[in-house]
Amino acid sequence: MSTAEGPITVYSLMLIKALENLSEMHEFLGNTLPDYKAVADKIRKDIKSRCYDENSGLYASSPEKDQFAQHTQIWAVLCGLEEGENAKRLLEKSFGLKCKVTYANMYYLLRAMELAGMYDKTDEAIADLKKLPALGCTTVPEWYGEDVRSECHAWSAVVLYEYTARVLGVTYRDGTIYIKPYIKGRNRARGSVATPQGMVFVEWQTKGSDFNVQIKLPENLTAELTMPNGETHTAVSGRYSCENIFCILET
Question: What's the CATH code of the domain at 137?
Answer without folding.
Answer: 1.50.10.10
